[in-house]
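Board notes (copied after class):
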Amino acid sequence: MIEISDEQLNQKREKAENFYKNIKKVWCPYFKENVHFNSEGYEHLLFKEWNKTRSRIEQYMRLRLLPFAPKIIGLSHTLQEYAESKRFERRKINSRWEKRLVLVRYYVFIAILNETRFKIIVKEVEGGAKMFHSIYPSWKKKKNSGILRKVLYSGDLEIE
Protein backbone atom coordinates (compact mmCIF):
# COMPACT_ATOMS: atom_id res chain seq x y z
CA MET A 1 0.00 0.00 0.00
CA ILE A 2 1.22 3.48 -0.86
CA GLU A 3 2.04 5.76 2.06
CA ILE A 4 1.46 9.50 1.67
CA SER A 5 3.26 11.72 4.17
CA ASP A 6 1.61 14.80 5.71
CA GLU A 7 4.08 16.96 3.80
CA GLN A 8 3.29 15.32 0.45
CA LEU A 9 -0.46 15.61 0.99
CA ASN A 10 -0.27 19.22 2.18
CA GLN A 11 1.90 20.21 -0.81
CA LYS A 12 -0.49 18.50 -3.21
CA ARG A 13 -3.51 20.18 -1.54
CA GLU A 14 -1.91 23.62 -1.74
CA LYS A 15 -0.89 23.20 -5.38
CA ALA A 16 -4.29 21.78 -6.35
CA GLU A 17 -6.21 24.49 -4.51
CA ASN A 18 -4.23 27.25 -6.25
CA PHE A 19 -4.80 25.57 -9.61
CA TYR A 20 -8.52 25.06 -8.90
CA LYS A 21 -9.12 28.68 -7.84
CA ASN A 22 -7.84 29.87 -11.22
CA ILE A 23 -10.13 27.68 -13.33
CA LYS A 24 -13.53 29.34 -12.61
CA LYS A 25 -15.32 27.79 -15.64
CA VAL A 26 -14.65 25.73 -18.77
CA TRP A 27 -16.64 25.63 -22.00
CA CYS A 28 -18.01 22.14 -22.64
CA PRO A 29 -18.85 21.24 -26.26
CA TYR A 30 -21.37 18.59 -25.15
CA PHE A 31 -23.50 21.04 -23.14
CA LYS A 32 -22.69 24.04 -25.33
CA GLU A 33 -22.29 25.98 -22.10
CA ASN A 34 -19.80 26.48 -19.29
CA VAL A 35 -19.12 24.02 -16.49
CA HIS A 36 -18.29 25.91 -13.30
CA PHE A 37 -15.53 24.98 -10.90
CA ASN A 38 -16.89 26.16 -7.54
CA SER A 39 -15.79 25.43 -3.98
CA GLU A 40 -18.22 22.50 -3.73
CA GLY A 41 -16.31 20.63 -6.45
CA TYR A 42 -12.97 21.13 -4.72
CA GLU A 43 -14.39 20.08 -1.35
CA HIS A 44 -15.76 16.94 -2.96
CA LEU A 45 -12.23 15.89 -3.92
CA LEU A 46 -11.39 15.85 -0.21
CA PHE A 47 -14.70 14.69 1.30
CA LYS A 48 -17.08 11.87 0.30
CA GLU A 49 -19.96 13.85 1.70
CA TRP A 50 -20.37 16.66 4.17
CA ASN A 51 -18.08 16.06 7.16
CA LYS A 52 -16.82 12.63 5.94
CA THR A 53 -13.20 12.83 4.79
CA ARG A 54 -11.82 10.66 1.99
CA SER A 55 -8.80 8.49 2.75
CA ARG A 56 -5.40 10.12 2.31
CA ILE A 57 -4.61 8.06 -0.79
CA GLU A 58 -7.97 8.96 -2.39
CA GLN A 59 -7.43 12.66 -1.70
CA TYR A 60 -3.90 12.56 -3.07
CA MET A 61 -4.93 10.63 -6.18
CA ARG A 62 -7.87 12.93 -7.00
CA LEU A 63 -5.82 16.08 -6.38
CA ARG A 64 -3.04 14.71 -8.59
CA LEU A 65 -5.56 14.09 -11.40
CA LEU A 66 -7.25 17.49 -11.07
CA PRO A 67 -5.22 19.22 -13.85
CA PHE A 68 -6.79 16.80 -16.37
CA ALA A 69 -10.38 17.82 -15.49
CA PRO A 70 -10.62 21.13 -17.42
CA LYS A 71 -8.95 19.56 -20.46
CA ILE A 72 -11.33 16.58 -20.51
CA ILE A 73 -14.42 18.75 -20.01
CA GLY A 74 -13.22 21.11 -22.74
CA LEU A 75 -12.85 18.23 -25.20
CA SER A 76 -15.98 16.24 -24.31
CA HIS A 77 -18.51 15.84 -27.09
CA THR A 78 -20.10 12.57 -25.94
CA LEU A 79 -21.81 11.68 -22.68
CA GLN A 80 -21.00 8.20 -21.36
CA GLU A 81 -23.27 8.00 -18.31
CA TYR A 82 -26.24 9.93 -16.96
CA ALA A 83 -28.17 9.65 -13.71
CA GLU A 84 -30.74 11.74 -11.94
CA SER A 85 -32.43 11.47 -8.58
CA LYS A 86 -34.10 13.50 -5.87
CA ARG A 87 -31.60 14.14 -3.09
CA PHE A 88 -31.33 16.27 -0.01
CA GLU A 89 -28.79 19.00 -0.76
CA ARG A 90 -27.31 21.44 1.74
CA ARG A 91 -28.08 24.99 0.67
CA LYS A 92 -27.60 28.32 2.37
CA ILE A 93 -31.05 29.83 2.72
CA ASN A 94 -31.67 33.07 4.64
CA SER A 95 -28.14 33.02 6.11
CA ARG A 96 -28.34 29.46 7.44
CA TRP A 97 -27.67 25.98 6.06
CA GLU A 98 -30.68 23.79 5.33
CA LYS A 99 -31.19 20.51 3.52
CA ARG A 100 -33.72 20.64 0.70
CA LEU A 101 -35.04 17.84 -1.52
CA VAL A 102 -34.13 18.74 -5.11
CA LEU A 103 -33.61 17.02 -8.46
CA VAL A 104 -29.91 16.38 -9.08
CA ARG A 105 -28.45 15.33 -12.43
CA TYR A 106 -25.05 13.70 -12.91
CA TYR A 107 -23.25 13.66 -16.26
CA VAL A 108 -20.21 11.40 -16.68
CA PHE A 109 -17.52 11.84 -19.30
CA ILE A 110 -14.79 9.27 -19.88
CA ALA A 111 -11.43 9.99 -21.47
CA ILE A 112 -8.14 8.17 -21.89
CA LEU A 113 -5.04 10.31 -21.36
CA ASN A 114 -1.51 9.11 -20.64
CA GLU A 115 -2.74 5.50 -20.73
CA THR A 116 -5.16 6.21 -17.85
CA ARG A 117 -8.92 6.00 -18.18
CA PHE A 118 -10.54 8.94 -16.36
CA LYS A 119 -14.09 9.59 -15.31
CA ILE A 120 -15.26 13.16 -14.82
CA ILE A 121 -18.57 13.86 -13.11
CA VAL A 122 -20.47 17.08 -13.73
CA LYS A 123 -23.33 17.79 -11.33
CA GLU A 124 -26.40 19.92 -11.91
CA VAL A 125 -28.74 20.77 -9.05
CA GLU A 126 -32.24 21.76 -10.15
CA GLY A 127 -32.28 25.46 -10.95
CA GLY A 128 -28.49 25.79 -10.83
CA ALA A 129 -25.52 25.80 -13.15
CA LYS A 130 -23.57 22.72 -14.18
CA MET A 131 -20.53 22.27 -11.97
CA PHE A 132 -17.47 20.07 -11.79
CA HIS A 133 -18.10 17.38 -9.19
CA SER A 134 -15.27 14.83 -9.35
CA ILE A 135 -12.46 13.14 -11.22
CA TYR A 136 -11.07 9.66 -10.67
CA PRO A 137 -9.37 6.91 -12.62
CA SER A 138 -11.89 4.41 -13.89
CA TRP A 139 -10.35 1.30 -12.41
CA LYS A 140 -11.80 -2.17 -12.26
CA LYS A 141 -11.15 -4.99 -9.83
CA LYS A 142 -8.07 -6.91 -10.88
CA LYS A 143 -6.35 -9.94 -9.50
CA ASN A 144 -2.59 -9.49 -9.45
CA SER A 145 -0.50 -12.32 -8.03
CA GLY A 146 -3.59 -13.65 -6.31
CA ILE A 147 -4.38 -10.29 -4.65
CA LEU A 148 -7.67 -8.55 -5.43
CA ARG A 149 -7.00 -4.82 -5.84
CA LYS A 150 -9.25 -2.29 -4.09
CA VAL A 151 -11.58 -0.24 -6.27
CA LEU A 152 -11.65 3.43 -5.30
CA TYR A 153 -15.19 4.07 -6.49
CA SER A 154 -18.55 2.77 -5.36
CA GLY A 155 -20.89 3.40 -8.28
CA ASP A 156 -22.77 6.16 -6.38
CA LEU A 157 -22.11 9.28 -8.45
CA GLU A 158 -22.81 11.57 -5.50
CA ILE A 159 -19.93 10.25 -3.40
CA GLU A 160 -17.57 9.61 -6.32
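Comment from the instructor: Residues 6-21 form the longest helix (16 residues). The radius of gyration is 16 Å.
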